Amino acid sequence: MWVVRRILGTVGGRTLAALVVLILAYQIWIGLAASGKVADGVGADPDARGRFAVDVVLDFPPERFHVLELQEYGRTRGTSENVIHLHMVTQDSVDAMARKYWIKEIRPGERVSLLR
Hints:
By secondary structure, this protein is of the alpha+beta class. It has two domains: 2-37; 52-108. It is 42% helix and 22% strand. It is built from four helices and four strands, in the order ααβαββαβ. A four-stranded antiparallel beta sheet has the order 2-3-1-4, covered by helices on one side. A hairpin with a 2-residue loop joins strand 2 and strand 3 (83-89). The longest helix is centred in the first third of the chain and has 27 residues, at 11-37.
């Protein structure tokens, strides 16, 4: 215990402790906010592999960065206004996307038939 007191007795130790507290608080906040971003019905109609379509809503028109970033989680079908349409998304991908602070909402998307 004396080691902790000695470390916190320095400016660097207090700075490090403050940074750890801020990072933990941010992670808790982003986790709580993520659950409210996913609309009811997301993932309710998966294909045989457990993948489905979603519409990712932003507060602004998506730029190239946002489209490229979301391609990590599914295939992009296009954009319209403030929405990026993805398909072949998994539940794990939805959870990861919801943790991004710039995503406003994730809604069920239109199912795409790959066989024509």
